[in-house]
Write a structure and sequence with these properties.
mainly alpha
C-alpha cells in the first residue's frame, strides 16, 4: 500500500484516507441479528481472553 501510494518513511502523512460508505440496514432482518449477536459474542470472548 505504501509503495502503491508512493509514500516513503519520511512522508507517511500523505497516505490517502479511506472513504466511508454508509448503508441503511434493516434491523428486523433475522440474518442481520444473528451475525451481530455472533460478532458481539466473539468480542466478549476476546475480552475474556485478554483479562
Amino acid at each position: 500500500m505504501l509503495y502503491k501510494n508512493k509514500v516513503n518513511k519520511k512522508d507517511i502523512i500523505s497516505i490517502k484516507q479511506f472513504t466511508f460508505v454508509f448503508e441503511k440496514t434493516n434491523d428486523d432482518n433475522k440474518m442481520f441479528k444473528y451475525y451481530i449477536e455472533d460478532i458481539i459474542l466473539k468480542l466478549l470472548n476476546i475480552e475474556t481472553i485478554m483479562k
